[in-house]
Amino acid sequence: MPTALDLTFTCSAADVDQLPPSPAEVAVAGRSNVGKSTVVNALAGASKLARTSKTPGRTQLLNCFTTPSGATLVDLPGFGYAKVSATERAAWRRRTERYLVTREPLVCTLLLVDGEVGPTSLDREMLTWLRSHDLAFRVVATKHDKVRSSRRDRRRRELA
Ligand SMILES: Nc1nc2c(ncn2[C@@H]2O[C@H](COP(=O)(O)OP(=O)(O)OP(=O)(O)O)[C@@H](O)[C@H]2O)c(=O)[nH]1
Ligand SMILES: [Mg+2]
Fold first, then answer.
1. Which residue, among 31, 28, 21, has the nearest Cα to 5 in the 3D structure?
2. What whole-number distance in Å separates Cα of residue 106 and Cα of residue 134?
3. Most buried of the four, 27, 84, 118, 132, by CB within 10 Å?
């Protein structure tokens, strides 16, 4: 079992300016319900650190978690939730893009993709956007356990 990160919930920020200073930060991004908060909990080896939900659109703020050295992990609000209004979607976009472009300590963004359904057009759009802004990222597949075991290798190759 890999060592868990000693993460403490620090704050929920409405905007990037409200986040604490940090020597190095990793952001967790992805569609609503893809499993961002679940990944934060998995990294911490804790089940209730970041709130997870069956209802998409649960995380609306920039939720910040800190390690003892002060490094931070930010659970970003999800994108692509069909039931939010166009105004809310535009606000999400502004806030998230501002965060990704201006947050100085940001060293890497984890872009989560649903390992069961594969990358959607919104995931590809996000990938293109990250590349066009020269932002470091890693793609992380979630929900791999939901893929039939006989298809897992193929699915992993398709995602890669
Ligand atoms: N089977 C399975 N379920 C998962 C996995 N990751 C997340 N889930 C479930 O998917 C649902 C959404 O997970 P969350 O972690 O809340 O997703 P989120 O990306 O934080 O969602 P928003 O905050 O709404 O954007 C929850 O019911 C989780 O238990 C996984 O790897 N496998
Ligand atoms: Mg969440």
1. 28
2. 12
3. 27
For ligand 2, an ion, list residues with CB under 5 A: 36-37, 59
Query: 37 alpha carbon to ligand 2 midpoint, in Å?
Result: 4
- pLDDT number for residue 59: 62
Q: Provide residues with CB under 6 Å of ligand 1.
A: 30, 32-38, 52-54, 56-59, 78, 142-143, 145-146
Domain spans in the chain, listed from the N-terminal domain onward: 8-159
Question: If you ran DSSP here, which 8-state letter would residue 17 be given?
Answer: G
CA of 1 to the centre of ligand 2 (A): 24
pLDDT value for 1? 60
Nearest atom in ligand 1 to the alpha carbon of residue 56 is: 24
CATH of domain 8-159: 3.40.50.300
Distance CA 64, CA 74 (A): 5
Question: Please, what sign has the CA dihedral across residues 81, 92, 85, 56?
Answer: positive
Residues comprising the chain, all counted: 160
The residue whose C-alpha atom lies closest to atom 14 belonging to ligand 1 is 35
Residue stretches of the chain with pLDDT short of 50: none
Record the pTM. Answer: 0.93
